Amino acid sequence: MPYDDTDLTPKLAEAARQVEICNACRYCEGYCAVFPAMFKERAFGAGDLTQLANLCHNCRGCYYACQYTEPHEFALNLPAALAEARHETWERFAWPAAPARLFQRSGVALATALVFGIAALFWAAAALAPASGDGFYAVLAHGTMVAIFLPAFLLPLVAICIGLRRYWTEVGGQRITLAHLRDAGRSAATMRNLAGGQGQGCNFEDEDRFTNARRHAHQAVMWGFLLCFASTASGTVLHYVFDMPAPYGLFSLPKLLGVPGGLLLTIGTAALVRLKIKADPALGAPALWGAEMAFVLLLGLTGLTGLMLYAATGTTFVAPLLAIHLGAVLTFFLSTPYSKMAHGFYRMAALIRDAQVKRG
After folding, report:
1. Which among 15, 66, 110, 199 has the fewest CB atoms less than 10 Å away?
2. Of 44, 69, 91, which one is at a domain's C-terminal end?
3. What is the C-alpha end-to-end distance of the chain, expressed in Å?
4. Which domain-ending residue is among 38, 62, 91?
5. Which of 166, 7, 9 is closest to 84 using CA atoms?
6. Which is nearest to 338 in space by CA: 303, 307, 294?
7. Is residue 80 domain-shared with residue 106, that is, in the same domain?
8. Quick one: CA dihedral 71, 194, 53, 353, positive or negative?
9. What's the confidence (pLDDT) of residue 110?
């Protein structure tokens, strides 16, 4: 739809300028889902730009192929323009707004929250330890864990749902069908948009090097997180439905899901940290580099401390490791709607919306 750029924020206006040039050039057709979606339009409103920004996976292949980057007068840097617009949408849609501004601006906020979360749980472990119990429950009562973590899980989930509803309204989302979910799920599961135009991968690390390293690292993190979540869910079912409380043996469902999940999560985040250090920050949102790195490290710490806690079973290290692990998990949950973790939800919504447009 036609737009008046005075109605756009400065970041969206810059994204619109660059997208219109790309739409006229069309050299990057087929690089990722952004360009087919872009080429369907003739003019771009706020909703169109929001959708394109969240559909972008920041693989950077288009930048290195572009003939209009600096020193050309057009000075295109589409990955950076869409990254800035994308982060702005997360902040704009977030509820409540104040924590979003805090977490988007600095990774220090995440680190501070983690420290305070760990300190609080150390206090809880010492002051609220039950008189008896097995495994973790000998350090922190089951009821105390539930009282702390149930609200810490549900309240951020509500905040995410509010943000996604705002996003869906702005991009003109329609009724979701199973076909839309199937198309989007297939794309997310395979990380197809990180495969590059020819399937040889993207050059996130280096202009001249095409690799699937970032794609594989993202897949490891995604599947590791899902396995860890499934492990927790299966433990909850065993506890409440079958009256089988923790601790669980190595060949129990929680451990068969959780141990591989923790390994994938730890390895994947370590790979993402390495890639992020090597990549050019000017092709993303430089002001938010620290916040993004803090999120990846926090996610990795969650997986690593979970593995260490299992390895320390029956030793004196259980209490301090449990406090650190629960502090990391608690901070992760509370920061989810405001940290880069939100990108997973918005990107899935963007893929669903893209599937709707493709299916007409």
Report:
1. 199
2. 91
3. 17
4. 91
5. 9
6. 294
7. no
8. positive
9. 64
Q: Give the mean pLDDT of 252-277.
A: 94
Q: State the pTM of this model.
A: 0.86
Q: Give the whole-angstrom CA distance, residue 277 versus residue 286.
A: 12
Q: Which domain holds residue 268?
A: 98-358
Residue 131: its pLDDT value, please?
A: 47
Measured between alpha carbons, how far is 177 from 11 in angstroms, rounded to an integer? 32
Quick one: pLDDT band at residue 248, thresholds 50, 70, 90? confident
pLDDT in tens, 279-310: 888 999 888 888 888 889 889 999 999 999 88
136-174: pLDDT as tens digits? 666 666 677 777 788 888 999 999 999 999 999 999 999
Question: Are 130 and 56 found together in one domain?
Answer: no
The residue whose two tokens read 């990107």 is: 347
Distance CA 311, CA 331 (A): 23
Nearest to 198 by CA among 22, 31, 25, 28: 31
Q: What is the pLDDT of residues 199-222, one digit of tens each?
A: 677 777 666 677 888 889 999 999
% of the chain at pLDDT higher than 70: 87
Q: What is the pLDDT of residue 163?
A: 95
Q: Which two tokens stand for residue 47?
A: 């909703």
Nearest to 57 by CA among 192, 213, 246: 192
Which tokens sit at 273?
């940290």
Token code pair at residue 222: 């995604």
Q: Is 202 helix (H, G, I), strand (E, B) or coil?
A: strand
Q: Are 129 and 108 in a shared domain? A: yes
CA gap 196, 51 in Å, rounded: 20
Q: Which pLDDT belongs to residue 1?
A: 39
Mark out the alpha helices in the chain (DSSP H runs): 10-25, 34-39, 46-55, 61-65, 78-93, 97-105, 107-127, 142-170, 178-190, 213-240, 253-278, 289-311, 318-335, 342-358
What is the count of structural domains for the chain?
Answer: 2
Distances (CA, A) of 231 to 224, 228, 299, 347: 10, 5, 16, 24
Within a 13 Å sphere around the CA of 316, how many CA atoms are in the beta-carbon half?
Answer: 0
Claim to verify: residue 53 and residue 161 sit in the same structural domain = no
